[in-house]
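>> received
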Amino acid sequence: MKTGVIRSVLAAAPLLMATPSFAQVTPPPVVPTAMPTPTLAPPVITVPPLSDAQAALLDKLLNGDIVAQGLKSAATASTSAPSKDELVRAALDHARAVHAGRLSGADFEKDWGLRPPAYDPTPAFADAVRLDRIAAWFASLPPPYAGYDGLRKGLQNYRSIASAGGWAPLASGPDFTIGATGPRVIALRKRLAAEDKDVSTSGDKFDAALVDAVRRAQRRYGLNPSGIVSTQTLAALNVSAGDRVRQIMANMERWRWLPQDLPRDRIQVNIAAAVLTVFDGDTPVQSMRAVTGRPGDETPMLSSTIHSIVINPPWNVPTSIATKELWPKERANPGYFKRNGIKVIDGTRLQQQAGDQSALGRFKFDFANDYSVYLHDTPSRAKFASFSRLASHGCVRLEKPAELADLLLKGDPSWTPEMVDAAVAKGDTVRARLT
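>> returned
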């Protein structure tokens, strides 16, 4: 592994089931200051003329793939047969939507730093027509990720469920789990069986097999797999099949925003799941829990390169945290700063000294970004035992930072594990650069 080129990809690998507010992507309103200059689509004449057989194939592929990818096309919505020029334009529009998503750069919120590059499908499509490889070109368009393909298959499944009438909502009531009996258990079995073919609909007893089925459902919804039908689990079960279809379509769109070619050697943070994974040659070699941004302080999506590791880092407190959290604590309890190793610099700026009580712990992993976020250690370890770990101000706290440091510095004679341990014990702030 060439540690100097490991990339930190802080991306919301889309969850199969996110909450509606998390899954919906609503572009912000834009007030134009002037009439924009019209942008013309690439001229159709850049694509060789379609043969009749190619036109028929393209029409069939478009109609099938638009449904499969959760997209719509005005060109194929007409009841009349589209012309060859209309088919070409529809194919190019479809390719842009499937390959890079349907949003423009202006539609993304500021914390969506990982955005798809501009994509022009015309040259590749022209080659596909010329070489009579239209079907292969179509197959190459979607994101090349198992997660996206899983969502595509899930979309087909949930559409079928929705078309068949979906499922009836479950009645509210107290939490229940193994040992429970009665009508609520019967209704639960029917509800779970609508999504899970391994669930038996017979019987009114909450047995061990039903506990396993509830846990499978909870994992699908990103919930703690407790096997208990809690208020939160009941709310997830009562989301309609139609809403699940819309959530899957929104998450498919998110996958389209990711780079088509992720570096084979990389560090990837699943923000929603709060898990960090190290890939070597596209193979996961290390994984650990993380704590990522809480609602309102979400960890941004971005791609960058880790350039150094700071051992025993001081914490230069962001102004927002100092103003909203730390200064009020000092005013309410004079001496709070001193007890927690916090210095006041230039009258207003706060810095917490390096050490065991530092909010950054013993390691900070630096990479260039526009959001002032980084990966770091933490003295607060309790949150790593929680199922939900969205609790930081936006930075990513690591469960095993020393192991990550050793892995990134592996092969560097200047920073053996013993040298890293000695530097930590000494307490001085030092920077280990990755080469």
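>> The longest helix spans residues 146-163.
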